[in-house]
Amino acid sequence: xxxxxxxxxxxxxxxxxGDGSVxxxxxxxxxxxxxxxxxxxxxxxxxxxxxxRPQPGRLRVILSAKKLGASPEVLRExxxxxxxxxxxxxxxxxxxxxxxATIEAVTMQAIGGAMGPPSLDDLEDFxxxxxxxxxxxxxxxxWEEKYGKKTAPPAATEGDEE
Amino acid sequence: MSAGVxxxxxxxxxxxxxxxxxxxxxxVAEGATVLTALDGRFAILDDDELRxxxxxxxxxxxxxxxxxxxxxxxxxxxDVPAAAEMLRARRSFVGAGPNLHVFVVxxxxxxxxxxxxxxxxxxxxxHTDMTPEVAEKCVDFALSTTNPSVTIxxxxxxxxxxxxxxxxxxxxxxxxxxxxxxxxxxxxxSNLSLMDEEKLAYLIDRRVQICTSIDGPADVHDQMRKxxxxxxxxxxxxxxxxxxxxxxxxxxxxxDETLYHVEALVTTTRALLPRxxxxxxxxxxxxxxxxxLRPLDPFGFxxxxxxxxxxxxxxxxxYYRRAVDYVIELNREGVEILERYAAIFLTxxxxxxxxxxxxxxxxxxxxxxxxxYNYDGQIFTCDxxxxxxxxxxxxxxxxxxxxxxxxxxxxHPTVRAVVIAGQxxxxxxxxxxxxxxxxxxxxxxxxxxxxxxxxRMRESTLCQVHKGIQDxxxxxxxxxxxxxRAILERWTTIRPREHFLHGA
Lengths: 162, 504
Ligand code: SF4
Ligand code: SF4
Prior knowledge:
Order of helices and strands of chain A: EEEHEEHHHH
Shape of chain B: globular
CATH architecture of the domain at 2-100 in chain A: 2-Layer Sandwich
Shape of chain A: elongated
Distance between the termini of chain B: 53 Å
Bound molecules: iron/sulfur cluster
Helix content of chain B: 25-40%
Oligomer: heterodimer
Radius of gyration of chain A: 26 Å
Strand content of chain B: 5-15%
CATH superfamily of the domain at 2-100 in chain A: Ribosomal protein S6/Translation elongation factor EF1B
Radius of gyration of chain B: 24 Å
Number of strands of chain B: 16
Largest sheet of chain B: 9 strands, mixed
Largest interface: A-B, 29 and 33 residues
């Protein structure tokens, strides 16, 4: 049962009092997907979160309150908070892009300085091989590596004899 | 409107900005606008000056020109090397590694504070005492920091309940540090109700700094910090009595009382808001040289008791302004006492230095400036992260002293995330805020209150407090009163307490 408890058009958000859930629609030309993930994530402690794309360019986010019997105020708050967090995430992404160099420099200096140089024990434990992990089923191999290359072998170099 | 500046009302529709170096601004009082430069220097302009600046009508050599050039706000005279040097000074702590190591030696406590941030346990919960083995591992871990200075801070619960563990930590740390030669300090955070002469003699002998909590007048303190009768008639009376005795002991030892005294902190609850004058008087009567008007934190029991003891932050700011006005008035009469929040911000504003207060710096101290060790050896980015663990949220857990290496912990992805989130240049609002270079918001606070380590400052109670306090301080500076300015400048003096240093 969809109800008009919000001062926004149904096409943007609607609430279902019976389910204790709200449905929000996000225009993908306005908000990056990362912002939708970021905003959705902040609700995991209070809500079950469902994402889908009912039509091209339009994402749907369903926030379903974990606690039964959510009041209209709680649902209103969920919509408002989601909208604000979505905007904050989108805008933050832009700002971070602009200030990336400073933020990265400070982060590297802060973490690097706090960690200090690796000790001999750390170096001994370090895996210098190029194999990142065991892969007995060949899941991480490319198709060509696993089933043999269909392309021509490299041209023979000088001195290559049968 | 921008940051409270109504351009239309000032007749400033047609702005010229090519003569200005990059700046941020904020209206701080009627007829007073603060402009902050890229390097954190500032100028406070009246409306005529603002108009002249905005129209590009700043005559070379005029007082306004000198004011703006001195704050690095003019494009033509923008001093790049000086700006770079100032920015470096403001971030001098970056890269130094964790200095503060919080040891939760027990969760047991004899008091029940309504807002207990530490998630105390009952006195029979002996399983929450740190064992000597865990204590030694924590010390080894703390001393492996890259920072040449290490402060071990005893927290709880009430650390005096586990006094033997504390002693073991101190003796073991001194022994281990004999070869390492770090500058080592110990701090005890205690309600002092379990202090006795023998314990005090040991703490004085081992040069341990002592901090306590005094929530103002007796009735408020005892209502908020409930001490069972078995330990005394009034927790307030006990805390005050021991504070006096410890300060007296320092005096007998010939230590300068302006530097050496019990540091007392306030936790502001609703009941205290109208009692700001009695609160300040309590601190002055005790001979305290500083008081720290902290608002309520959202951690621990305060999360549950908030309905009864919390308040809108506008009311807190009103209380803050009244209390600090009164503190300034007392200073005019010759009483030397400062407010800690103001001192932290003013040191950055007036001196261009950072006092390295871990919760108001950027990046915040979590993981790179401090680590917290729980009684069982689990390690967290900060004490607040450890408090969240007690509330069932392990987001800020980094490892443990049994299985994790120092580099694993400090290079943990959570530390990287909070370092990034703690940089205000990456946050909407902060990025354009005139106070960005003086401010700081711990990501753990945003995580707890808004569900994201980045937070939304427009809705953050901490931002509201920081902005309100800085508005107040700039408004005071804008008054242009030489005596007030001298008092505020005095609060920024940083003098090291060398008596408490070991191994230096
Ligand atoms: S705040 Fe400190 S003194 Fe008060 S109950 Fe908690 S641990 Fe005990
Ligand atoms: S936290 Fe608030 S006051 Fe501080 S820089 Fe950000 S917006 Fe400004």
